[in-house]
Amino acid sequence: MNIxxxxxxxxxxxxxxxxxxxxxxxxxxxxxxxxTGSTPxxxxxxxxxxxxxxxxxxxKTTTFNLDEYVGLPIGHPESYRVYMQxxxxxxxxxxxxxxxxxxxSLEDTSVECKRYDxxxxxxxxxxxxxxxxxxxxxIGFNEPNHALLRETHTVTLREETRQANARYFKSMDDxxxxxxxxxxxxxxxxxxxxxxxxxxxxxxxxxxxxxxxxTTEIPASLLQxxxxxxxxxxxxxxxxxxx
Length: 243
Ligand code: F6R
Known about the structure:
Largest sheet: 7 strands, parallel
CATH class: Alpha Beta
Helix content: 25-40%
Oligomer: single chain
Bound molecules: fructose -6-phosphate
């Protein structure tokens, strides 16, 4: 495990963008696993800046997003597809047919989960998986549980996850109760995982996940067993690693 703690958000964003861009430059047909939420936005901004400087092309890259809410219509402003368009995809040369995000608007999500795993299998291994971490230790929307699933699946979001994400919706009632998430199988199979953590409110969970017991009750703790894990944290999130 390679842990880097940064004294500014700018430096963290630059380092995160450099790792993603480096992966795309090194491999002709790189496969990226992408995340949403507040954690990666600065990294995506930095990637767009570098793209505009002509330093990278995504024309041969394939992407898989970790998750999507169930029940939001296509084009809903809080859907993760719209998030990805607004933060990254609208500004780079990634061909739309190389973008994969679960479709949470379908009646039968199990068919969509199966389809997603088939696309993942066809693309082979994810070269670089970007992850954030939830306050309860979730990765993707693999919520704490007595067992975790390998495959892409539909998950009922924990109350604390809905509350954490309520800031983006008009009211708590508007926050979806379910999501489709990539399972632990595809995440753990990634060649390299880059976990990004920001803010004092994540200090305890990230420390527990990376130094404590490996348990399905803290899904991110499984990352301890990954052979190529890079962790980028700001000073607040990394507080307990520095003492
Ligand atoms: C998002 C995702 C989630 C988030 C996590 C942290 O695609 O899979 O696991 O990474 O909930 O969210 P933020 O970054 O908003 O604190």
